[in-house]
Write a structure and sequence with these properties.
This protein has one domain. It contains 2 helices and 6 strands. The chain has a 6-stranded antiparallel beta sheet.
Amino acid sequence: MNRLNRCELLTQGRPLFLGVDGEGGAHYWDSYEFAVAVVSADGDAEKIELSETPFETLSQWCEYTRSERGWDVGPHVGGSLVGDLVRGVEA
């Protein structure tokens, strides 16, 4: 996990908003780096590359977050655009 300032958080111009976990952390998906960025309620930010975790897919990350923190908003995985993205990544 890498701690970053928010300007360095993601490489793509428009990261995909996944949702807000039960602890107030906003999760964003960077498909270019295959990473999740989490901005905590107090403004701390970290980027988690899935290759550095036991999770192989975005869906697995979302399920892990559900079991550890819960989701207050989202996750927005499984809608038409997001579902297409997830299916493409998992293929």
